[in-house]
């Protein structure tokens, strides 16, 4: 009798295990593919007859293709919205470089999938999945690595084990590591992202790719960018073929997008014309449609019918859509901020489904109309008027622009996708409604207290992401200071020039500090201040300033960098990095 009961219990347990395994296997996998700076005109399937993208063209034929899909104007904003399902400004990201302040309390896409039993792998660009001391493996990724900068050949990869120098083309390395990860997942459903840094500058493809385009009569610049795109397309083709060999091509939802519009750096009008097949206005970093409109492809054989989807969609929709399609259980999610995106399930299931009437907020992130201007730092976010910026409200048909000079325009994108004819007088009610809604959305973003802020730096541990400040990460700057690119603060040549930084000391004790930059000996007498503690240099050279030991207590506090006298105002210092070395 006891043996019979034991056998019955074992059978029940075994059946439960098999049912759980079967249920896990029945859930679709997810493969996200994201390219970098690939404009809407940089695809064969979007009407560019010169560039060769046969693998993406084939994927487009097999996918639902959202033709009215928008992202943000640059990589960090788009990728943060992709991973959070939220407007990037609410997530703390208001640009690139030090403005990529992805808040530490944001919950990212891999965390949602991991909470529901998915394996999670991420291979490629690090924007949107980490910040400072928080790396992808701290934010939901079982396995991950990302390149340091934009080395397309022999990259330095950031891994949990440290920086590893790899040999080969970065796009191929991303694909190979993703495939290796997928092969090891067995019956466990998986979520995996391949986030290329190609075709971001510099355009340096293998010679064979560039040579093909030279023979087609392309200029050196055009051959380089098109060669890079075709190189990426070949890497994607390899990824998809290997996925098919593994038997995963039918049970995987494949999502493809680019992160923003094209860069036309140093290109002639003729070269730009070749890439801008839809004749849209603007470039990467602008709020015009050529800066934010890209293709979105979603493939799931047997469930999603291929073909065009004219319904309006935005990058914030991808997380809610994938959570819906894969049946993730919200009860298992970590506590998170509300999503701004919506599920696109209805449009995916029915190409003729009704349009969801809604709008999205977009803002120029550099150049004219960008917050902070030449100073690069916003001291008081509530004092940044919407009227000083180029911000837009984008809907399915209409788009309203608020310009930095205080003027505004309304465009009918159905009739005028190039945004050339103001129709405010023709549609005054829509112009008024969009203007009011834009104001409301902007105020709601400011009310979060998360926009236009630089990151807090944690100090006190000898780990990546701690102890090192980029000078432009200042919370506030005063006097004649201004940012230079993403890396330098220029000034510190007269009393009153100062920068304030937010730091969190996780381990108190005796610290030392060094500062790197250029022409640092032109400063007017450097000083670091931590509350009542003032620290003056031991040594100063053109490239480095060294400070003597000082004591810091634990907790959040303000660090001020300033000068006490006058220096070389015609050739002032450029401060790049500040290092706070904690006690050993």
Automatic annotation (TrEMBL):
Domain of life: Bacteria
Enzyme class: hydrolase
KW Signal (keyword) present: yes
Start and end residues of each Sulfatase N-terminal domain: 28-327
Sorted UniProt keywords: Hydrolase, Signal
Entry EC number(s): 3.1.6.1
Pfam family, one: Sulfatase
Single Gene Ontology MF annotation: arylsulfatase activity
Extent of the signal sequence: 1-23
Keyword Signal in record: yes
Family: Belongs to the sulfatase family.
Protein name: Arylsulfatase
Source species of the chain: Kiritimatiella glycovorans
Encoding gene, per UniProt annotation: atsA_17
